[in-house]
């Protein structure tokens, strides 16, 4: 019962209201846990695995929109329709209101005691700013400056702040948090045991705050470039940036998982790997390929089961697509045709050819019934204890890297190439690429990415130092004055595989991957191309605040706040996105 009360504190207006609910939100005498417990609770609730809707709805959709995956038999007809998911409610019902209550409790202490808790409060400001950015990214104008005032002040109809104002308030909170953490205080509360992410390490919290500021700056580049550059130069001047993978904003709770197996993730249909990204990763011998996706079942044993190998579908080109991608621990060479992606283009000529593609997922099958198309690595995406084809439940624990060293490095490379700051773009690019390889290897090892394919057990194969070296020196990936910015964006896109929301935002703000690229090309989905949503409508708040909600939608130029038509969600853009290029145009 207490847990329910904690969740209901404040912000009832965003989830619907009745008299009892309003009473809970305005009664300051309802008991709550101590501030440090609230801090820990928020960290647990903000991790993507915890709120299944993020993968069940939001990221499932964005993985297909960004073309990390293909839905059904070449992107079924409803690929661009939406189901909003839980991020909005998570922020208001589980994050912002609990952090507000934590700060309220501390504000009622003596000045000396408030100082004692100051650095934990500052860390909480970073948590809130990080998640608030994710919310305004897709919903635009949101209640922020007056939000979470229900319980203490009885404010059940907060104003909707303009997105630009929200971004500036987030920036101010991050700057203030850094100042609070910098202050020399004689005695500080040791919140290391309450801090899942950094165990109370203030230096790392400051680096994280600066990393969030850089991510925020990318949202301003097309609307207020001068302000974006000001933020970037201030962070560089401060100098406290992520320096290694040890600084990453990482949640490692142990033994936890993201969502449910099977239909829990594939609620719109079976999901397959996408041909464009598969072919690019094969062409560059990217070791992340075996972490992102599963090999198919076309082992030599399967090929031998065919009475005539010439009857094997041309989709599995055993004669030409046979470069060695890697060698397993037991000596099996994994050749190029073991990773087959499905075209993202609905009208691909081969889609209509009978038996050209086999849409069957049979991890225990050998021969003609074996799995042909590569699926996403289910234990990386869904849950650590996914059991392939009757394998014993593997060991390992779920880890979530919410803001990576790689992302920071690749942003720095982008900013240098665009002339916002000085520095060695190639060095930041190399560090970002290497960091991504090592981060995904860490995920592979911690999540124990064992699988079964063609009735054979495949233990996780760690990325070797030789593979890292070969990838970093691959001539086709070097910054050499030709398509340098595109190469940076491609590595950022690959790095965002586990953060597909960020991958989709990258596609919106940059136009990459672009159609017709000689590197990693975006594929047309249809002819004419179909529109994909660039925003998600904010939820209706209920009677107490519906007027302000309607006004906020009108102010943003939305013809109907309830309209989820893909073309409308594509053309009626949020403030931060108004001047961004068309997806696939490679325009920024």
Automatic annotation (TrEMBL):
It comes from the Bacteria. This is SusD/RagB family nutrient-binding outer membrane lipoprotein.
